[in-house]
Amino acid sequence: MPVNLKRPDPQYLKPVNGVSLGVAQAEIGKPGRKDLLVVKLEDGSRVAAVFTQNRFCAAPVVVARQHLTMLDPDASIKALLVNTGCANAGTGKEGMSAARQSCAQLAALLGCSSAQVLPFSTGVIMEPLPVEKIGAGLPDCLANLREDNWLAAAEAIMTTDTLPKAASRRVSIGGQTVTVTGIAKGAGMIHPNMATMLAFVATDAPLSLALARAAVAQAANHSFNCITVDGDTSTNDAFVLISTGRASAPEIRDAGSAEYQELMQGVTAVAAELAQSIIRDGEGATKFITIRIEGGRRDEECRRIAYAIAHSPLVKTAFFASDPNLGRILAAVGKAGISDLAVDKIDLYLDDVLVVKNGGRHPGYRESDGQRVMKQPEISIRVTLNRGSATATVWTCDLSHDYVTINAEYRT
User: Which of 122, 181, 196, 244 is catalytic?
Assistant: First the structure.
């Protein structure tokens, strides 16, 4: 079962003025489930995105990037087209053609150019995209368009997820209330670098395109780029931020303004909740683990150490077994590649338990205290380097028998 993750309450998910969502069962992957989503945007919406850095990126990633850069300045993105069941990655020229054809199919129904449609896919790699099934399902998506359809949309993009992931906030900027709502999917192949991860967040706050691009990168760095399940960066990762501008507030153009900072608190909070939901629903996960590295010289070295711990199979399996074999954490810190790290200054805490002081086992540490913490469903690891003021936080999960089973049987 997911770690302290509940099914979202539809009443908690606030509609975003200018965004409507429609889903369909197109039988792209498994029959009898929602697997096709259209997100329709009103004129003037600003759309920005960050994508996977995997060089073997999927055809929809390539096409979406192209559409975002080639769009006429007087036009705007009209729709997002998302399918599950097929990643359309590792499919060569045919996959690229299929991604473009699916955009053209939706564009014809909406009366816009295909460059105004952004495609996204998730599912099995190296399988051809069933364009005919997508085309057949699109009328049902459009007939189903509603502003309050966020939960159904979250369900329509799931793969190995056990629960849909959605979050919403109301934010006051300049005395005006704006809405931020988003959905995400992901449970395995999670280690975003901007996992199979998709995330879509919308706000009715009016952002300039330049600030929308800055905002999506900033929010990603404090959310989706801070999580890992298994260290595998997907071919299809994408995080999209939509600004419809329908709220009654002046356009935000200055990154230094109070209005931008207030909005970013809401956007980042939604993105972080979605990112943490992915970890809580990690394939086979039984523990949600926060890793915080403090006292580093640079943020980057702190992040490298955090990920060295988070990616260690020995650390992750020990947490699954609630076995306080905590020397594995020290070994992970030491392999992070920080050549001048002074190990004799390092302190290690497990929640409130001081395990290591100045690089060695703390005399007051008792294994029973470590095991008490490790039996909890939520655990924090805190490593203090005592060499500076930089910090980094990463969220991860344990590694269980079920993770192997889920991935061994992924296509069955």
Answer: 196
